[in-house]
Amino acid sequence: MAQAKAGRREVGRLEWIVGAIGALIVVATLGVLIHEALTYHEGAPALVVRVLDVTPTDGGFVVRFRTENKGPSTAAEVVVSATLKDGDRVAEHAETTLDYIARKSSREAGVILRRDPASGTLELAATSYRKP
Amino acid sequence: MTSRSAAGGRDVESGFLVSLGRAAGGAIVFALPVLMTMEMWSLGASMDRTRLALLLVGIVPLLVGLSHYIGFEETETWVDDLRDAFVAIAVGFVTSAAVLSLFGLIGPHLSFDEVLGAIVIQTVPASFGAVIAQGQLGQSDAADDRRNKQAGYGGSLLFVASGAVFLSFNIAPTEEIDFISASMTPWHAIALVIVSAAAMHAIVYSVGFEGQSAMRPEDYPFRSVFLRNSLPGYAIALLVSAAMLWIFGRLDDLGASAALRLVIVLGFPAAIGAAFARLIVGGQS
User: Does A104 contact B113 at a Cβ distance shorter than 8 Å?
Assistant: First the structure.
């Protein structure tokens, strides 16, 4: 291994560079975290559900959707319920639970309906969550 | 003349690359249990930002201390130790980011918050692993060996704290400690305190004597070792476990007695980790 003959070891330029990168990572991360800590304010998660697409399959109509959390706090066990209405009558109901949606993040999921969602009006909304 | 020093420079650089590789290996070995634990991925996003920042700041002195005593490279001055600590953080950060993306756990589909948080959490055990890799996997050099012998009281308490952090870090975010502390009666808690302290003493006693430390049976009787090493060691383990629980937000909604019980439950692995610190962290014997 690289070692100077008398005691003190030679330190290559690369080692200083990697050390500096480490210091930079720490400083930059701290900067971001402190910025987030200062701008953070407690608030309710804002969960918005958006349908991505509907795919007819042998197992039913797969409705893929994306749930976005636009709020400042993280939500766990987010229940998204899908209701297919035929006029005033509820034709079909499905529910799914998303483990976890961090603040300013989104998760994709799906529900599977037996009827074509185009046959009525499909309502998708987050109905409950838990603080992680 | 110039060509000879250039060749020497290349040797220095290639030697450093080898130790970087070894550090990355150590980082993966130590971070793998945390990398593959579900709680740890989401924690980074939901954790209080100030506490996450404190965690990152808190590991720097521990890494500097570890680097001073066992080293990732032979170190002489505190500038060397500081540089080594930051090298370890760089290695830990990059290794964690690489493995997390390999698992598909981080990527452009997640917010920046979530990605950064996940990487920072993983960086803690990974950078420990990077420093320790030299102590465990590599050949330690004469200078570090000598200093390891001379670690002294302060140094041994530092090892103890590092060992406690290392073992309790993986366990602190899990649901299981809640279940354990909920199923324990106060008598169980008392028994656990006694067993933790006793186990710590047994390990410190046997490992201390086997190893190269200054403790010798004739120099220090049972009572002295217990008072000077085991009890302060257990106290440090409890403090570390309280700090870990607080950083991960586990104490936030708990009453005083439930919180204390949780600290005691986590204090058990912390004490074991602390006691084995000379094996896990400073194992040169």
Answer: yes
Which chain A positions have a beta carbon within 8 Å of B83's beta carbon?
A: 11, 15-16, 19
Instruction: For helices B2-35 and B78-102, give the axis angle rounded to 10 degrees.
Output: 50
Does B98 touch chain A if contact means CB atoms closer than 8 Å?
A: no
Show residues of chain B in contact with A33, CB under 8 Å: 49-50, 52-53, 56, 116, 120
CB contact under 8 A, B46 and A132: yes
Tell me the two tokens of residue A14. Answer: 């690369």
Within 13 A of B42's CA, how many CA atoms are on the CB side?
A: 19
* Number of CB atoms found within 10 A of residue B203's CB: 20
pLDDT digits (tens, 9 = 90+) for B100-131: 999 988 888 788 888 999 999 999 999 998 98
Are A36 and B49 within 8 A, CB to CB? yes
ipTM computed for the complex: 0.72
Where are the domains positioned within chain A? 1-40, 47-130
Substitution target from B11, B57, B63, B86 for chain A, most A beta carbons within 10 A: B86
Q: Mutation target for B interface from A5, A24, A29, A42: give the one with most B CBs within 10 A.
A: A29
Q: Which residues of B223-237 are buried (b: 16+ CB within 10 A; e: fewer)?
A: eebbeebbeebbebb
Q: What does each C-alpha distance from B132 to B24, B163, B209, B246, B281 come to in angstroms?
A: 11, 11, 22, 26, 6
3-state SS, one letter per residue, for B123-152? HHHHHHHHHHHHHHCCCCCHHHHHHHHCCH
CA dihedral sign of residues B211, B217, B223, B224? negative
pLDDT at B219: 56
Task: Please state, in angstroms and rounded to a whole number, the distance separating the CA atoms of residues B166 and B135.
Answer: 15
Pick the CATH number of A47-130 from 3.40.190.170, 3.30.1360.70, 1.20.120.450, 2.60.40.10: 2.60.40.10
Q: Does B149 touch chain A (CB under 8 A)?
A: no
The burial class, CB within 10 Å (0-12 / 13-18 / 19+), for B268 is buried
